[in-house]
Design goal:
Layout (H helix, E strand, L loop, with lengths): L4 H22 L3 H9 L5 H22 L6 H24 L3 H21 L10 H18 L3 H11 L4 H25 L5 H25 L4 H21 L1
Helix pairs in contact: 1-2, 1-9, 2-3, 3-8, 3-9, 4-6, 4-8, 5-10, 6-7, 7-8, 7-10
Amino acid sequence: MDYDFGQMLWIVCGVAFAASFLHGIVSLGYGMIAMGVMAFFMPYSNCAAIVSLQLTLLTIQIAFTFRKNIDWKLVFLPTVVMLAGKVLGVVVLMNLNSDFMKLLLGAMLVLFSCNGLFVKNEKLAVRGNKINSVIFPFVGGLFGGMFNVSGPAAALYFQAACRGDTKKYSGCLNFTFVPSAIVGTVMHIFYGNYNRPAITTGCISLLAVIIGVNLGVRIFVKIDYERLRKITFAFIGVMGIAICVL
């Protein structure tokens, strides 16, 4: 079915509002939700370009909102390795069969989700140590480059590293997304994925992103740590299942 510009604009803005609202509540998930829906209505390259632009604004906005809660020493290394993983993920996507990697990621996310919600085996628990500050953000960047799903792996690390401080968790997690989102937007410009409709709908939809994330964050700040932990693990599990089946 072909959509005229007005219809496409409403679709993009509606998806942007809903995805940013949910991201504001749980601090992750925008890329997967927005890409998963908008890809049904427009070419994948244009969809990825629009989402990258929206994600840049979204992550900057959340990081700025919680800027006083960001631990700059904590975020430096994860931010660098996530960016490196993002670049490598794009290379892997272009050169290797990624189906197995996609299933592996989904299965790992479901495993960690179930452990965090039900089993709580300390041997499987992610710890907020130096090694994991490299491993999980790098894996997040890698799969972000391959499938636009950076959040779950990085969230597992920051849940452990920022235990008990929800604002610190959201600020640190979203700050690590910012450089990768900016690089992704620049790459889409370089590859010519921003045609006139993509530029117009993308820019106008930024208003929906701002409104959605502000409303989501208002709910987020009222959630206590334990409830946020359960919501995050449940959301990661749902994303893992969706990665495996879609």
